[in-house]
Amino acid sequence: MTDLAPVTLPVATPRQARRILGQALRPHRRAASLALMVLLGTVGAGLFIPPALGTLVDIVYTGGRRAELTGPLVTLAVATLVQGVLSSGGWLLIVQVGEKALAGLRETVLGHALSLPQAEIERGGTGDLVSRVSNDVDKVSEALRRGFPQFLWSACAAVLTVGGLAALDWRLALAGLVSLPFYAWAARGYLIVSPPLFAAERRAEGERSQQLVETLGGFRTIQALLLGPRHLRRTDVRSEAARRASIKAIDTTAWFFSRIHLGELTGTGTVLVLGAWLVGAGDATVGEATAAALYFIRLYDPIGLLVNLLDEVQSATASLSRLVGILQVEATARPGGPEPRDTTLTLRGVRFGYADGPDVLRDVDLVIRPGEHVALVGASGAGKTTLAALVAGIHEPRAGSIELGGTPLAGMSREDLARHITLISQEVHVFAGTLAEDLRLADADATEPRIREALSLVGASPWVGLLPDGLDTRVGTGGFTLTPVQAQQIALARMVLRNPAVAVLDEATAEAGSAGARELEASMARVLAGRTALLVAHRLTTAAAADRVVIMRDGRIVEQGPPSELATRGGPYSELWHAWQTNR
Ligand SMILES: Nc1ncnc2c1ncn2[C@@H]1O[C@H](COP(=O)(O)OP(=O)(O)OP(=O)(O)O)[C@@H](O)[C@H]1O
């Protein structure tokens, strides 16, 4: 893998994508058939217009009576009215079907993405995933809302109009067909040339998003290591690739339209010349020749639209394939093993690395006894957060095993895992909604007294009491902004409500300030009482309160023992301890 070729999620073949779309449309077959009938009615009504106009031309041309005009004029009025009424109803029905199918598809894809282990998503790239569920969903959505109904209408209109022309005079219909080779030429070229170009455009956009997410996500590290110019260069390269891919795709569209206009010119010219000749030979009336030309001109819109839509359908198919590709990332099957005997955590010979990267954990052996609190201490990058994520079952080791009460985590179902072990990471997320809703994410049936009890245990009652609407106050995006300490307390309260036997905590005291950190330490101590706990300690006071401290360096455990013993042993912990005491 080169530096500039990130791993992305899989892409489905157009056939697989169409199959999934078909499945999403299946529950709405009846509404779709009704909408199709209404559309056919609309086009059918429009077919009466050219002959009626032709008849009017004949009446005027031959100096007919004024009363003769009534019939064609009534036909014109009724056909226009029916066309108008049916078309608005038909569009509405089709748009509804499209929206419902899209909602189903979006739920399927998002549901699958959420059920995937974090490692699978990280391997493919979160930027790529974001681009798929935003850009690609928009493209498919636009196609289903507008493109798909217009495509149906154009196809019906084109076929029926050619039928109307043939019913008028088969020779004039044949004359119109002279344009077909131009349309076929354009469509064939477009269908063969454009799919890879549109797929490349989507891929380039995905890679650009991926690069932006990487750059913004690693903002601090990039600044600290002065990697800004390098990341700017990479972003430039990917943006340039996306720009080139877009221009190539647009070029084929221009080529396509030039062929279509050639078809229109040839078809109309031939119909007019043959019409004039037939009139001259006395084989057709001026009105019939006019109607034939009008029929052919009525083909411009549907064919132009079909052309336009081929572009949109191609582009939407490429997006749909990327969306459906998410369904192809298989969640590693987790059959559900036996209930753990107890809450002993046992790590044996654990080795781990991210995606295809080097090992960041090596030969980790660790046993945490039921009820024991173990603190992980070490320099930044030593592997503490990674080890915590493995113990919470988020990642699986490359080698070695992690067991809870004798049951390997890898063999436990996600539900069992979530029931036994809860992880609180440094970046706590407060979901948009009321505070009570946010807390009930941990236990949907939690009663208000239980919620209040949990808030009291984590020390959040005083500030929650001051919120304008108490538990019904809206928090998260667009709502009341919680401080980092408050957000951590909410995460701890969620843990209390979920009540797991094992707690894994990545201490987030860095942003809390020293008063906030002390407050959080006290909240944590109350929540962890009685549970088996592994905590990543960023402050040595947290480590000093644990039963055992484990020191990590370069992905290995280099020292462990009770903090009071380690402080005087003269090893890495006592060095850290003394340095910290001196700097206080
Ligand atoms: N998502 C990731 N993808 C690739 N490498 C990663 C990822 N997360 C961490 N690493 C790498 O794994 C190693 C261990 O990182 P980890 O975050 O576990 O260390 P840490 O001891 O928790 O550091 P800190 O105290 O800064 O959080 C580091 O070299 C880091 O760059």
TrEMBL record:
Q: Does the keyword Transmembrane apply?
A: yes
Gene3D superfamilies, per database record: ABC transporter type 1, transmembrane domain, P-loop containing nucleotide triphosphate hydrolases
User: Which segments constitute the ABC transmembrane type-1 domain?
Assistant: 34-315
List all membrane-crossing ranges: 31-53, 73-95, 151-170
Q: Where does the source fall among the domains of life?
A: Bacteria
User: Membrane topology type, per the record?
Assistant: Multi-pass membrane protein
What positions does the domain ABC transporter occupy?
345-579
Could you list this entry's UniProt keywords, alphabetically sorted: ATP-binding, Membrane, Nucleotide-binding, Transmembrane, Transmembrane helix
Gene Ontology molecular function terms on file: ATP binding
- Major site of localization recorded for this protein: membrane
Q: Where in the cell is it found?
A: Cell membrane
Among the Pfam families in the record, one is: ABC_membrane
Q: This protein is called what?
A: ABC transporter ATP-binding protein/permease
Name the source organism.
Actinoplanes hulinensis
